[in-house]
Design a protein that fits this description.
Elements (H helix, E strand, L loop, with lengths): L1 E6 L5 E6 L2 E7 L1 H4 L9 H11 L8 E5 L3 H8 L1 H11 L9 H11 L8 H16 L5 E5 L1 H11 L6 E10 L2 E9 L2 E9 L4 H11 L8 H8 L16 E4 L2 E4 L3 H13 L3 H27 L3 E5 L6 H8 L6 E4 L8 H14 L16 H9 L4 E5 L2 H13 L4 E4 L13 E5 L4 H12 L8 E5 L3 H4 L14 E3 L17 E3 L1 E3 L4 H14 L3 E6 L11 H10 L4 E4 L2 E5 L3
Parallel strand pairs: 1-4, 4-5, 6-11, 11-12, 14-21, 16-19
Antiparallel strand pairs: 1-2, 2-3, 6-7, 7-8, 9-10, 13-22, 14-15, 15-20, 16-20, 17-18, 21-22
Helix pairs in contact: 3-4, 3-6, 5-10, 7-13, 8-10, 8-11, 9-11, 11-12, 15-18
Length: 567
């Protein structure tokens, strides 16, 4: 039984599930080259079918999510969605009515599904799918936060899970809590869209001059450059009230936007960021702890855009009443196509356990790569074995180089996890600055992140024994003796957003073992293989183009070593 999951909103994408096996998942941005694409995921769907080697008519069930009023309206009037995409990403001149437009958005988006929205959305999507060639399928609607919960709970590997979802909003909610036990998923708590902690953080992001739904991570990083102060001096302290497991916003989203604007006007950006981060961290910690105590479940699984906040995740994981924590790696809306498919599989077959790997995207045969390389005479390439390339890459990094690293299947989600990565020494400020100047162009306050062998984790960070984080979704505290050494991956507060690598990625773990022979530790700087503002590369052609644009000298691509002659 094949189930296709689709999402046609912010960071649109598709996923394919067969029985209780996840076959493929990707986001449309990788195909269209528009970051956080909002259009219908036609390319992702076709790639999923191609990977599984099936035809459209073999898909029996198609699941989609989110039928709230504004999403349905966008499906009816696609130009409205495109206009907002250009506005949000600041691809147009600043309009004179910017403030009013944001207020209108926040007044409308709290409207959940209205009568008829599900039928209208279904009809519009069915028409699109029929034109693609799908026939005789059943179309399923999955609630937004149920899709988030399915991604976290069904991939956690926990016997009994407390599942917490938190984001901006979807289908009239901004959060939920569910219990997954004995093959049954049951929602036990919901937070309305009006009371959204995610909308608050989004508003702060926009008001201090960054792009909402995209730059929230910069707020988290910037916060550490403020002088610290206690919560009683936080001017956002009364914006939310948490009583037990009941979270309420004091003000409507529209009024809240005005109040944040007035407060931020009088303060440096880093202090505003600090107050927002302090409020979000404290609220999430208390909510998670109260839920664990109320339902007596210490194994927690989380999803939703707010859980891209790795500092808050670290503090939740460190709670005494948390036994283990699973953070679904594609926690934002880009992951809910998979969530829709997983939940539909659960409803049809009762499946609640799915083996999860983040390496769910496309891969390319060596013949395709060689054809792309032969077309460009400025590149020289040599075929190496997999083991040889790991040794070679480690040697080049030991000499102070950064490298492009393209291997096997593309990752699903916003993080490069060793298959579409740029890698570099973790102990070199010089190579970090070179990488930032010519490729990444990140703001000065944003740190890079490390990948490290799981064997070396307890030596490098204050490891709590609550499970290795394979997906770079949580911060960890570096041990004191390593703070000055791992300087290209450490944040100013001494934390790192670490990917902990075991045998789930043989090629990458072999690379880290080769690095360990040079350094004593299997650790590298790992950042996503892309130019600033563009999606992570997908194809060999994408990799070659990026190599030339950034004037990068070395690349390893599926056992082929490439040198840029022009550098």
């Amino acid at each position: 039984m094949y189930i296709l999951g689709i999402w046609d909103g912010h960071d649109s994408g598709a996923a394919l599930v067969r029985d209780n096996e996840i076959l493929f998942a990707a986001n449309e941005e990788r195909f269209t080259k528009r970051k956080l694409e909002i259009n219908f995921p036609q390319h992702s769907i076709e790639a999923a079918l191609k990977h599984a080697k099936i035809r459209h008519h073999e898909i029996e069930h198609i699941a989609f999510t989110t039928t709230e009023f504004t999403k349905t309206l966008e499906r009816m009037i696609p130009g409205m969605k495109e206009n907002y995409y250009q506005f949000r990403r600041r691809k147009i001149q600043k309009p004179s009515f910017e403030h009013a437009r944001h207020k209108l958005k926040y007044s409308m988006t709290t409207i959940g599904p209205l009568p008829g929205c599900g039928s209208v959305s279904s009809s519009l999507l069915r028409s699109r799918l029929d034109r693609m060639g799908f026939k005789n399928y059943k179309l399923h609607i999955v609630d937004h936060h149920t899709a988030h919960a399915a991604t976290a709970g069904f991939t956690s590997g926990q016997k009994k899970s407390l599942i917490l979802t938190l984001d901006g909003l979807g289908d009239g909610l901004s959060g939920s809590a569910s219990i997954l036990s004995n093959g049954k998923l049951e929602r036990v708590m919901a937070i309305s869209a009006r009371d959204s902690l995610g909308i608050f953080y989004e508003q702060v992001t926009n008001i201090i001059g960054m792009r909402e739904l995209e730059d929230e991570g910069k707020i988290m990083a910037m916060a550490d450059y403020s002088f610290p102060f206690t919560f009683d001096k936080n001017r956002f302290k009364d914006f939310f009230d948490l009583t037990g497991t009941r979270l309420k916003a004091k003000y409507s989203p529209s009024k809240q936007y005005d109040m944040i604007s007035r407060i931020a006007w009088q303060m440096p950006r880093e202090q505003t960021a600090y107050m927002a981060q302090q409020l979000v961290e404290g609220t999430i910690i208390k909510l998670a702890s109260n839920l664990i105590d109320r339902y007596n479940v210490g194994d927690i699984a989380v999803a939703g855009g707010l859980f891209s906040n790795v500092k808050a995740n670290m503090l939740v994981r460190e709670l005494d009443n948390v036994k283990s924590m699973h953070i679904f790696p594609h926690m934002g809306d880009g992951g809910i196509a998979l969530g829709a498919a997983l939940f539909t599989s659960y409803k049809l077959s009762g499946a609640t356990e799915f083996a999860f790997s983040p390496y769910l995207g496309s891969e390319y045969a060596n013949e395709e790569t060689e054809t792309a390389l032969k077309a460009d005479r400025s590149l020289k390439y040599v075929i190496e074995g997999r083991e040889e390339q790991c040794k070679h890459a480690a040697e080049l990094m030991a000499e102070g180089n950064y490298l492009f690293w393209f291997q096997n299947r593309m990752e699903f989600g916003p993080r490069a996890l060793g298959n579409r990565s740029i890698i570099a020494p973790s102990n070199s400020d010089e190579v970090k600055e070179k990488l930032n100047l010519f490729v990444k162009q990140r703001e000065w306050f944003q740190p890079f992140a490390p990948s490290m062998l799981e064997d070396d984790v307890p030596k490098l960070v204050e490891y709590d024994g609550k499970g290795f984080n394979r997906f770079m979704t949580s911060a960890y505290r570096l041990k004191q003796e390593h703070k000055a050494v791992e300087k290209s991956v450490a944040h100013i507060d001494g934390t790192v957003r670490a990917q902990m690598v075991g045998d789930e990625n043989k090629t990458y773990s072999n690379l880290l073992r080769a690095v360990k022979k040079h350094r004593g530790y299997g650790v590298v700087l790992n950042t996503s293989f892309n130019i600033h503002g563009q999606p992570i590369v997908m194809t060999p052609e994408d990799a070659i183009m990026t190599m030339k644009q950034t004037k990068t000298k070395y690349m390893f691509i599926d056992g082929i070593f490439v040198t840029n002659r022009s550098v």
